[in-house]
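Re: Re: token formats

Sure, here are both.
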Amino acid sequence: MEKVKNLLKPKANPQQQLRDWQRKLRQECRNIERQIRDVEREEKAVQKAIREAAKRNDMVSAKALAKEIVCSRKAVNRLHENRAQMNSISMHLGESVAIARTVGHLSKSTEVMKLVNNLMKAPEVAATMQEFSKEMTKAGVIEEMVNDSLDDALDSEDIEEETEQEVEKVLTEIAGETAAQLPVAARREKLKQPVQTSAEEEGDDDEEELEAIRARLAKVRS
């Protein structure tokens, strides 16, 4: 019965298909913009937590939080790239309108195919772009693609070293002045000589706070 309905359903003309795709792309771009705002808003809270950890001379937590910020900023950069590529797809589709009016159908576009293929590899928008790929392939805008995973040309050790450098930069950027005063802070902590149980309880609280922050960041990045 569903197949019969699909056969009877009138096919959208090329211009209507283009408008529908552009509307979906605009909606997806708005979703990406909202996600970027969420990540950037959460980063401000993490920056505050890093400064507080540095004041406590808790550089283990400060470094862990700085690494979370590095990951978040990379995620935001990817989201900006995704949005730019979606806008580019929309622009190319718009240019296809004149051709579609002349020939009566949508013509294949290698540029759109490349952009869609790239976005299908992006975890944040992969599902949406897979659906776009099916619709555009059916409409004849792009050819059927095999989403092969690309081999990472970078060595894992180089990536780890680069991440460590970025973490140090973030620490210097956010808690540079505080970190410079750490030797004084450390001496003050020794003079206070807190009770061991109190220190352990404070450590547990810090760890719980760190895990909570990580969870929030992971949620807004997903």
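Second one below.
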Amino acid sequence: MAKDANGTQLNDGDNVTLVKDLKVKGAGATLKRGTMVKNIRLTSNDKEIEGKIDKMGVIVLKTEFLKKA
């Protein structure tokens, strides 16, 4: 069961926001705190999700840096 930084359960299709700035490896960009990640998908690893970010496409993020919107 995937949980966000506050311990709230995450489900497929949820929208989440970032709780801190994150550097994206290979993209040379930084995702800013408060960035919306739409329509997440849970992965086989409870500590990671896949989500779509505007202008970046699909990205894998650790749940410890997310907050349910």
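DSSP finds no helices and seven strands in the chain. The mean pLDDT is 93.
- S.
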